[in-house]
Structures are given as structure tokens and as C-alpha cells.
Task: structure prediction
Amino acid sequence: MKPVYEDDFVSLYHGDLFDVLPTLPVGSIHSLITDPPYCSGAAGVGVKADPITKYCQNGNSLGRPTFGGDAKNERGFSFWCLQWLRFCRQIVQPGGYALVFIDWRNLPSMCDALQAADWIHRGTIPWDKGSQSRSPHKGYFRHQCEYIPWGTNGPCKNRTDAGPFAGCHHIPVDRKDKHHITGKPVKLMAELVQVAPPGETILDPFAGSGTTLLAASQAGRKAIGIEREKSYIDITIRRLQASAQQAA
Result:
């Protein structure tokens, strides 16, 4: 399978991760940094809400496309995460990192899957999105944090080139620069990609609108992204091309 977009730093694949991952060489990746579908929150018994309804206040997606793969039940989600995390570990270097976004509902399932796939779970990084985060109603605490369970493929090396890295991030969502329904701020991803030394390769098998790829390339890291939604492939390519033009 060939990338649909490629430059000096980024290779972007349009397809299913289970088709693309086996084509990547063992040990070719330094760090896995990704934001998979959370598959949490139900509209009713056995019914999952559409991402546009679930993730957007008052159903307002601001014109962002929806995406698939977000309707698994808890057991299906755990097994699915185990499968792709195992594939990813096979191509990440010994000592390489895994950083995976998740919300509070499926945090236990993600941590279990990470360990079941033979990553060593090292901790969980909170991301505080700020007080603008929504709450179901005024009786609730705000859903103000998302979480990043992290681990390593074997022993965690004693770094002399970087670190220690921040164990908590307070970075608000920038709506003007949010290109995916669940998109993360470039500023946040710019912090996370620092775990990979300059010139090393980061893998994002759920590339979405390409924020991880963009942050990696701007920081002098290489990145491989996989995305199955054509609408988000197009958005990612536009963002990468615009960034390259600004840097020229």
C-alpha cells in the first residue's frame, strides 16, 4: 500500500489500520501517539450516539464531518484496542513510547488493553481542557479532563536528551484551529511529540485531521498517519500543504 500523501516528514495512508500496520517494518517507529474513537456514551440501552450528537454541544459540529468506528460496546472496544495495540507494539522500537487518548468512561478498558498487549503501563497523563468544557447539566461536575495512558515497549530508558516530560497539561481547546469533531490542540500535540528525538518517527494510526502529523513535522520529527475517512484525509492534506507553504 502506498501513501496518498508524502513529504520530507510525513507519510499519510488512506485505509484501515489493520491493512496498513503489517506493511510497516518491525522497529521502524519510535513512538505511538494516537487518539482513537472512545466508543463511550450511549443514547439509550444498546444504542450509541452519533459522534456529531455526542461530542458537539447542542449537536453543533460546526460543519466538521462525522466518523465511523465509535459504536463498539465495552467488551468489543477492549478486544479491538488489544488487537491494534499489539500490532503497534510489534513495529515500535524497544523502549519506545505509547501515548493513547481516552475519556473517563473507557479509561479502565484502555489501560487494561495497553497492558494485555504487553506494553508496560507507566502512568496516565490528564489533559485539562479548561472551564469552557461542557457538562450534561448544572448538577454535574464538568467533563473537563481527558486522559492519556502511557507506556513503553519494554524498559523505559534513562534519557539524557530530553525529559522529564510534563505529567499534566493545561491547554484549552482552540475552536478556530479544531478541524475534527474530537480534534486536539496543536499546542498539546507539540508537547507530546517531544518524547521522540528529532528525526525519529511517530505513528498515529487514527490520524483524524492530522494534528499529530502536523505537530511532529513542525517539531522536526517524522510521522506516519493512517486514516480511513476520506473527508479527513482531504482535510489533513490541506493542513500539511498549508504548513509546508508557510515554512517555505
Observations:
- Residues 5-247 form a domain with the Rossmann fold fold (CATH 3.40.50.150).
- DSSP finds seven helices and eleven strands in the chain.
- The two ends are 29 Å apart (CA to CA).
